[in-house]
Write a structure and sequence with these properties.
This protein is α/β, with parallel strands linked by helices. It is built from 11 helices and 13 strands. The chain folds into 2 domains: 131 residues, Aspartate Aminotransferase, domain 1 (Alpha-Beta Complex); 237 residues, Type I PLP-dependent aspartate aminotransferase-like (Major domain) (Aspartate Aminotransferase, domain 2, 3-Layer(aba) Sandwich). Helix 1 runs antiparallel to helix 7. The structure holds pyridoxal-5'-phosphate.
Length: 377
């Protein structure tokens, strides 16, 4: 791939050198962590030391960390577990990632949608009223509220939601895929019952994540077979991926970056050029900027920026490569902007020059779009 400016960390961060090193070392490790001989025991030791590192990231005891194939599976495991434990009504925020929305829809029980305001923040008055109306015959109320949104970066009032949920003996699931290693938050600080994370958003390899759970949650056996992950998820563990995840988690907890200053520095120029910053009044992830240019379709912006060597996303990047109007912006009542917003997201390896290069490319792109529109009119 030609060198360019990569500002799509919320889709997938570049793998940190520490993680590459740990993956490579783990691949050289002979043995299956379930084998009792010396090689197996060495592999097991590596697995358990990685579990301790990921436990530090999520803020729970290592014994409650279940490795999964990523954030999607961790979210599904939480929802399936709540339904198996008797929840008959799931409350899901309107801005959840598709892995939560689709798993809830597929669960076969009633799903209520927790609305957000125009800043993209969950409406806790609505949640309080809904919890008060909860019928005991519907089992424990289950609430999914993500820690920070993947498109806007808007940080959610998870602790306040947790207090409401606990007062109703409910189950709070937090999708912390975008927040882990980027925000000073963990499952303990917000008292989540289940908490999902994924390695590739914080500089680990793709295809590995984890779910941690508290004392009020019980997990289903999601995959049948061997007794791996204390019988909760059968199948030989992805040791290289898990070792890389642990190395990235350690680095993410240790390092800080200056993305917030660079992002906020870029905003004045972008707004002067006609950009609208989505969720600007809310607390957001440091490196995330959701930006609309009215009338300019998001996918065309992404293509134009790509031609200029700048890689960003249009709202939520879907696996098909196609872009649909963002359900997050629709939920915020921004129907007129939902098809023309891009997401710019930096992280651990981003530099001030990357943000400056983005601004320059964006200005050139929007100027030529405006000039074309004027000449066509
Ligand atoms: N949850 C959020 C908020 C995400 O942004 C993503 C990925 O974009 C996921 C879950 C899914 O994680 P994974 O790609 O590891 O399955």
């Amino acid at each position: 791939m030609r060198p360019g400016i990569y500002l799509d960390f919320n889709a997938g961060a570049p793998v940190r050198p520490e993680a590459v090193e740990a993956v490579t070392a783990a691949m050289a490790q002979v043995g299956n962590p379930s084998s009792v001989h010396g090689a197996g025991r060495a592999a097991r030791a590596l697995l358990e030391s990685a579990r301790t590192d990921v436990a530090a990231l999520v803020g729970g005891p290592a014994s409650t960390v279940v490795f999964t194939s990523g954030g999607t599976e961790a979210n599904a495991l939480a929802i399936e577990s709540a339904v198996a434990a008797g929840s008959r009504r799931l409350i899901i925020s309107a801005i959840e990632h598709d892995s939560v929305i689709e798993a809830a829809r597929a669960s076969g029980v009633v799903v209520d949608v927790l609305p957000v305001d125009r800043h993209g923040i969950a409406d806790l008055d609505w949640l309080a009223a809904r919890l008060s109306d909860h019928e005991p015959t519907d089992g424990r109320p289950f609430v999914a509220l993500m820690a920070a949104n993947n498109e806007t970066g808007v940080i959610q009032p998870v602790l306040e939601a947790s207090e409401l949920v606990r007062a109703h003996n409910g189950w709070l699931h937090v999708d912390a895929v975008q927040a882990a290693g980027r925000l000073a938050m963990d499952s303990r600080s917000v008292q989540a019952d289940t908490y999902a994370v994924s390695a590739h958003k914080l500089g680990g390899p793709q295809g590995v994540g984890a779910l941690t759970f508290g004392p009020r949650a019980s997990l289903v056996r999601r995959q049948h077979g061997g007794g791996q992950e204390r019988g909760r998820r059968a199948g030989t563990e992805n040791l290289p991926g898990i070792a890389g995840f642990a190395a990235a988690a350690r680095a993410a907890l240790r390092d800080r970056d200056d993305n917030r200053a660079w992002r906020d520095g870029a905003v004045a120029d972008l707004k002067a050029g006609g950009a609208i910053v989505i969720g600007e009044a809310a607390r957001r992830l440091d490196g995330t900027l959701c930006l609309a240019f009215p009338g300019f379709p998001a996918e065309r912006q992404v293509m134009a920026l790509d031609l200029a060597g700048v890689m960003v996303s249009a709202g939520a990047a879907c696996s098909s490569g196609k872009v649909k109007a963002s359900h997050v912006l629709l939920a915020m009542g921004l129907d007129d902007l939902a098809g023309c917003a891009i997401r710019v997201s930096g992280g651990w390896s981003t530099t001030a020059k990357d943000w400056a290069g983005f601004v320059e490319a964006w200005q050139a792109m929007t100027s030529s779009y405006t000039a074309r529109r004027a000449s066509a009119a």
